[in-house]
Amino acid sequence: MTTVHFRFYAELNDFLPKNQRLIEFPYEFAGRQSVKHLIEAAGVPHTEVDLVLVNGASVDFSYFPEDGDRISVYPVFEAFNITRVSRVRPQPLRQTRFVLDSHLGRLAVYLRMLGFDTLYRSDYGDGELARICVEERRVLLTRDRGLLMRAAVTRGYFVRQRSWRQQLIDVIRRFDLAACTAPLTRCLRCNEPLEAVTREAVADRVPPRSREHCDRYWQCRGCSRLYWNGSHYRRMLQFAEQVLRSASGEPGNAE
Description:
The chain is an alpha/beta fold. The protein has helices at residues 35-41, 105-113, 126-135, 145-148, 164-174, 199-202, 208-213, 231-248; strands spanning 2-8, 25-29, 49-54, 57-59, 70-75, 98-100, 118-120, 139-142, 156-158, 194-197, 217-220, 226-228. Helix 2 (105-113) packs across helix 5 and helix 5 packs across helix 8 (231-248). The longest helix is centred in the last third of the chain and has 18 residues, at 231-248.
């Protein structure tokens, strides 16, 4: 048997039994196994990991631990520069795009509301989610830990919160997205970008009262759904501001 000593940091402890959290603990295994396999055997999806140090030196997932190794495992660093050491996953996306599993429909709508390219369908299977994640270089958001352990999935996050509002705040913080939002620039229904249209071009599609009080109109490039700057539009902008204040820790309530 080979014995190594693991120490998991920050939110990675969420995946561990209580008696292994926030401490160094011994881990025994037989045969020759990669550090990636050992991390997932301990219960932590590899997509949650950005840095692995063995005896103080950074390694990638293909490293085979030896008896007595001390292994420190750190979570994804979206908001910090750790380029001087070796990440165990690709560099963060320049433009963060998402694909969500069937449990996160409301979160998908509100990520779109903030302007993020977010794919969601209630009938996506696990294989399809993994394929989209890889082929389109999207971050997979899910509440299924097993899905994140698929070998093909390299970019993903286990959404811990149950309330969709707290999920939204959590994702903004996790991926440092506050400065990247572009509220109400994407269709809430189909995810395609919106483009400005004139009042005259859509007059027959807008209720009379809205035509009287609204002066800005947008149409979805994909499904042609129409949006305008009425009271609902203003409420959504206010909600977006509250969410961003909450995500940054400023006073404000997005509940």
